[in-house]
Specification:
There is one protein chain. By secondary structure, the protein is an alpha/beta fold. It folds into 2 domains: 111 residues, NAD(P)-binding Rossmann-like Domain (Rossmann fold, 3-Layer(aba) Sandwich), CATH 3.40.50; 192 residues, Dihydrodipicolinate Reductase, domain 2 (2-Layer Sandwich). It has 12 helices and 15 strands. A 9-stranded mixed β-sheet has the order 14-13-12-11-7-10-9-8-15. A 6-stranded parallel β-sheet has the order 3-2-1-4-5-6, sandwiched between helices. The longest helix is centred in the C-terminal third of the chain and has 20 residues. It starts with a strand and ends in a 10-residue tail after the last helix. It comes from Bosea vestrisii. This is Gfo/Idh/MocA family protein.
Length: 361
């Protein structure tokens, strides 16, 4: 098989992570890198072709595929230019920064007939696949609800090196909660409505440092989510799975899925059930640990992107699906600002084409 020529737009933190994975992958060859800080990036990547203008990189290297890891507000523009040239895209989350630009990107991708994949990398964890199978097989009965926490303490330098993180849009809702919203959509199902409250009491910045979210799923389940970047805890997916060196491993579960016949912890995959046929609070409940091998989700994501380009798989998250996650996340911020419960169904129906029902793999 001829290797896939791949370019990278944006060589910041996440772009560098992708570059490292590409260098180790046997099925991809790096065609070029585009970044406005071309001289610095070239010094860091002496063997690569580096361009200050991403369009020049697309036209001169003619890659088969591109990873878009540029700032959020450039995602749509970058993706549309790739689509016009027939280049497949893996676009980092969020898919774009606004719903209008998301629809423009969706239209361009469909018109060009290219393959697209949004970089919500957690969809590629084996623990996630196992969880989805357990829920779809009704191993805990009907899903009644889910309770989750994402809480860490971001140090002061995090805000000093990027002052925009102290302003609207720089808090845990749009930066961190979007991962969790996507995970909940993928594991539980589509979200019908959201309500939220936020606080900036701990840091006093113009943006929230803590949020509480109430989620109603289309299947009738109810979810609650607590998110904060000013609280010390071992309860984040990053710490529980050990997917990122920036988050020391805790091995703790931050999700609890409750069903009519049992419960599941995630990512530890501990299943709780009663021995009898009829559930009752008078019966003891016992735990069973389910094993799912760990893997590097960024490598698994690249494997999936390869199969997508070669026509061997359907996209685990095309751009229109990534836009649904964006709609839900923006609705959390809107619900907190207005004090209103936001219904997502009409927005998804009018802004995006309907999607077929997903089946767990």
């Amino acid at each position: 098989m001829t290797n896939i020529a791949i370019g990278v737009i944006g060589a910041g933190l996440i772009g560098r992570k992708h570059l490292a994975k590409i260098a180790e992958h046997p099925d991809f060859d790096l065609a070029g890198i585009a970044d406005v800080n071309a001289e610095q990036v070239a010094a860091q990547n002496p063997a690569a072709r580096v361009f200050a203008d991403y369009r020049a990189m697309l036209d001169e290297t003619r890659p088969d595929a591109v990873i878009i890891a540029s700032p959020n507000q450039l995602h749509a523009e970058n993706g549309i230019e790739c689509a016009r040239r027939g280049i497949h895209i893996l676009i980092e989350k969020p898919v774009t920064d606004t719903l209008a630009s998301a629809n423009a990107l969706i239209s361009a991708v469909k018109a060009a007939g290219i393959q697209s994949l949004v970089g919500h990398h957690r969809r590629h964890h084996r623990q996630v696949a196992t969880l989805r199978s357990l829920l779809n097989e009704r191993q805990i009965g009907d899903l009644v609800g889910v309770s989750a926490i994402w809480a860490v303490y971001k140090p002061d330098p995090y805000f000093k090196v990027a002052p925009w993180r102290t302003q609207a849009g720089g808090g845990p809702v749009l930066i961190n909660l979007i991962h969790e919203i996507d995970f909940l959509r993928f594991s539980v199902g589509e979200i019908a409505t959201v309500g939220a409250v936020v606080s900036n009491r701990q840091r006093g910045f113009a943006v929230e440092d803590t949020a509480g979210v109430l989620i109603e799923f289309e299947n009738g389940a109810i979810g609650t989510f607590f998110a904060s970047d000013s609280a010390v805890s071992p309860w984040t997916t990053e710490q529980g799975v050990g997917e990122s060196p920036e988050f020391p491993f805790s091995g703790e579960s931050s999700y609890r899925f409750m069903g009519s016949r049992g419960a599941l912890e995630f990512p530890n995959l501990v299943q709780w059930a009663q021995a009898g046929d009829a559930p009752s609070w008078n019966e003891p409940i016992q735990a069973r640990r389910i094993h799912a091998p760990t893997l590097d989700p960024y490598v698994a994501q690249l494997d999936h992107f390869r199969d997508l380009i070669l026509g061997k798989a359907a996209s685990l998250q095309p751009v229109e699906d990534g836009a649904r996650t964006l709609i839900a996340t923006l609705a959390v911020a809107e619900a907190a600002a207005t004090g209103q419960r936001i219904d997502l169904r009409e927005r998804c129906a009018t802004l995006l084409p309907p999607q077929p029902e997903r089946k767990a793999s």
